[in-house]
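Chain A, query sequence.
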Amino acid sequence: MGDRSNIVIQETTYGTRTGGRVWLYGHWMGERALTVVQSVIESGERLTDESYLARIVFEAMVPDDQRGDTTGYGISTRITDNEYPIIVLDPDKGTAWIEDEKGTKQTKVVPMPEFASAVSTAGRDYDAVILLLK
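Chain A, predicted structure.
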């Protein structure tokens, strides 16, 4: 069992090379993923730099898990396990949205601060955030 959720960092597209994705997985993170992303966006730090943003988000996911637990979190280039809608951050465009596991957008693409504001209003409730950003 778990409370599995994912946060995705969309990589920048360079020339003809299409950017991929880095998946940050939390086995017990659940709806806390929303407030993790909110806090990172509100910090305003390195939001346009994909490699730093990925590290900052991951650190926000694991602040109390420095003991080396090998089952709580993961980093991947694809989805591995999930129970919630997926939060996507695009540092190149400064945008965020929520999508399902098939990549279908559940919300419109919005500037990161607007996404954080919606989470602030809705709290840890994916359905409420989705309604606010439809």
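The beta strands are 5-10, 21-26, 73-76, 86-90, 95-99, 110-111. The chain has a mean pLDDT of 92.
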